[in-house]
Specification:
The structure holds 2 protein chains of 2 kinds. By secondary structure, chain A is an alpha/beta fold. Chain A has one domain: Rossmann fold. Chain A has 10 helices and 10 strands. A 6-stranded mixed sheet of chain A has the order 6-7-8-3-9-10, sandwiched between helices. In chain A, strands 2-1-4-5 form a 4-stranded antiparallel sheet, with helices on one face. In chain A, helix 3 runs parallel beside helix 6, helix 4 packs across helix 6 and helix 6 runs parallel beside helix 7. Chain A is globular, with a radius of gyration of 18 Å. Chain B is α+β, with helices and mostly antiparallel strands. In chain B, strand 2 and strand 3 form a beta hairpin. The longest helix of chain B is centred in the first third of the chain and has 36 residues. Classes of the chains: A alpha/beta, B alpha+beta. Chain A: It is a peripheral membrane protein.
């Protein structure tokens, strides 16, 4: 299992919302250039855990975090600026949420806030990102049109392009296809597989088939605990823990 | 069954009656104002100063081309005169090369004579109970450098219009930035809790205080304590305080309507909070903020009580921020003054019509802006 490098190392991570413990002693190594899937029933903490990886939980009030998360060996809660962290660890949200601006401006938003102003440089980044997100051909003629005017599946790929434009190392996807139709879902899945060559991808999903189709590793969460973590093939075919087996075979969830 | 039908009928009748009554009242009020005020609205009313102004001027005459003073034409001055209904001599026409355009007052400042000015004296001839011929002859045969006593007639609302615009601009310049920034603080930065609740409570209550109390405060603090006297600055500062709660709460509503996901995705891309506010939050709140500003303009245009106590009722174009030169009557305070001091209901109604038109125009602008921005964002 140690043939690739660890991108994230999580040590004894606890997370409290006020007095409620949402995550309990999570330990995990996430590998580079792989797709890691988090599965589990609603409220199991998988999305919460995902958000600790780029500190989006900082935005929620009354959150307390114990333990450590290392990105390439650097503690992300003490030794790195949160702005820097978020440009290295991008995020794609559950609902497609482009800004109410043109497609071009959406994708150029990240580079612009990080100080890139030259038009030709921005043009290049926008095209490259949209190509990477496999949506260039569909939108190249309407870059100046509002991003809200395209379909939900296209919006989500614009959002992915927007994330890619910042050139992150890791992309966090929080149920990126739950609001999309099956065809758009397949496109996003293909895209994720394509992107893992260059990026480390961590995806939260409710869709078991999706996890088994695209991920290399799968982690199963239940009530704030990580029950089992391993190769996707092993988790789905030969789970060690009884609870994992029950969930995967559909006995609860 | 029948009683139920009857109840329905009565209630329905009541509803129709109430609506009809409301509409009727509106129509009657508007009709009355229009009936009283429309006759008084003309170009002079819209373009002239309020008070008449008497000035002595000196004009260097040109050589006379023809001495025919018929029909009130005076060739050495390049003007045509006539008698008005009160038998006063006034200027109906000024030629483009006329020397009266070069006229100077007694301080030798330029004071060009305009169409409509009344001449009451030429050199030593007093123009009273005079025929056109006599007046024209007196003007034609006067000294080389002729001394004229000229009355520029008033009766117009220009000073009030200008003062209203000055006060709108000044008040917004003060209250809009403060209000918008305060709303951003309250909505984006302040932590939920007791203090925030107290601040919100205070703002809500400030909005409900009668404006005359703000006026009293403005008079005590700005006019007297800070010695601004009745002035546009004192008025604008007082109005700014009145406007703040509206601007803050309207802007806050606009900020609240912005989906949290916009902020999250911006922060998720590595933007700072300030960048997020300034690049995503504020642009999206802009239509709401503009509406807040237009509502504020409406409020300023309509405010009278607070301004009576802080800006005064002098019908002049203010030329300073504080002091005597800065006292200013807006349209509404003048309207009040007209009814209260001179009982001039038709004049007041004419001003009321101007105010109504202003408010309607503002409302149309605010609707257009909102529509335009919604269309631009692609979420009509």
């Amino acid at each position: 299992m140690n043939d690739t490098v660890s991108k994230f190392s999580v040590n004894d991570l606890d997370l409290f919302y006020g007095s409620f413990q949402a995550l309990k002693k999570i330990n995990m190594e996430i590998k580079e250039n792989e797709i890691t899937a988090f599965i589990g029933p609603s409220g199991c903490g998988k999305s919460t855990f995902l958000k600790t990886l780029n500190r989006m939980n900082d935005l929620v009030e009354n959150v307390q975090i114990g333990g450590n998360i290392y990105l390439d060996g650097v503690d992300i809660y003490s030794d790195i600026d949160v702005i820097k962290l978020r440009s290295r660890v991008g995020m794609v949200f559950q609902q497609p949420n482009p800004f109410p601006m043109s497609i071009y401006d959406n994708v150029a938003y990240g580079p612009r806030i990080h100080g890139i102003k030259k038009k030709n440089q921005l043009d290049e980044i926008v095209e490259k990102s949209l190509r990477q997100a496999a949506i260039w051909d569909e939108v190249k003629d309407k870059l100046k049109k509002s991003a809200l005017a395209v379909s939900g599946g296209q919006q989500q790929r614009v959002c992915i392009a927007r994330t890619l434009a910042v050139e992150p190392e890791v992309i966090l996807m929080d149920e990126p296809t739950s609001a999309l139709d099956p065809i758009s879902t397949l496109k996003i899945e293909d895209l994720a597989v394509e992107l893992k060559k260059d990026y480390t991808i961590i995806i939260v999903t409710h869709n078991m088939q999706q996890a088994s189709r695209i991920s290399d590793k799968t982690a199963f969460f239940l009530l704030g605990e990580m029950i089992e973590y391993g190769d996707t093939h092993q988790i789905f075919n030969n789970p060690v823990d009884k609870k994992t087996e029950d969930y995967i075979t559909g006995r609860f969830g | 069954m029948d009683s139920r039908k009857m109840k329905d009928g009565i209630l329905q009748g009541l509803i129709y009656f109430s609506t009809a009554f409301t509409v009727l009242v509106l129509v009657v009020i508007l009709g009355f104002v229009l009936y009283k005020g429309l006759p008084g609205i003309n170009l002079n009313f819209l373009t002239r100063m309020w008070d008449s102004k008497t000035t002595f001027v000196k004009v260097v005459k040109e050589e006379s081309v023809d001495n025919n003073t018929k029909d009130g034409y005076i060739s050495s001055l390049g003007i045509t005169i006539d008698l008005d209904e009160k038998n006063k001599v006034y200027i109906t026409e000024i030629e483009s090369e006329s020397p009266v355009k070069e006229a100077v007052n007694l301080k030798n400042d330029s004071y060009p004579i305009k169409k409509g000015d009344i001449i009451t004296k030429a050199d030593t001839t007093i123009f009273e109970n005079i025929t056109i011929e006599e007046a024209a002859t007196a003007l034609e045969n006067g000294n080389e450098t002729m001394k004229l006593k000229v009355v520029r007639p008033g009766g117009g609302i220009i000073p009030m219009l200008v003062s209203t615009i000055y006060i709108i601009l000044l008040s917004l310049l003060i209250s809009a930035p403060i209000g918008i920034l305060a709303a951003i603080y309250l909505n984006e930065y302040a932590k939920a809790g007791r203090l925030l609740n107290i601040i919100r409570f205070a703002i809500q209550n400030l909005a409900g205080i009668p404006s005359i109390i703000y006026g009293l405060f403005g008079m005590l603090v700005f006019v007297q304590m800070l010695q601004m006297q009745y002035s546009i600055l004192a008025g604008a500062l007082t109005l700014s305080i009145i406007l703040l709660p509206t601007i803050i709460s309207t802007t806050e509503e606009a900020l609240k309507a912005i989906p949290a996901t916009y902020r999250q995705s911006s922060l998720g891309l590595g933007a700072t909070k300030l960048q997020t506010n300034y690049k995503v939050v504020l642009p999206n709140a802009l239509p709401g903020i503009l509406v807040a500003i237009i509502l504020s303009i409406g409020r300023i245009v309509g405010e009278s009580a607070a301004l009576l106590l802080t800006a005064g009722t002098v019908a002049q174009i203010p030329t300073a921020f504080t002091g005597n030169e800065a006292a200013a009557a807006t349209l509404t305070t003048k309207l009040y003054w007209l009814i209260k001091e001179s009982g001039d209901l038709s004049g007041a109604s004419s001003i009321a019509i101007v105010l109504l038109v202003l408010i309607i125009v503002l409302n149309i602008i605010s609707k257009t802006i909102t529509k335009h921005f919604l269309a631009k964002q692609g979420n009509k």
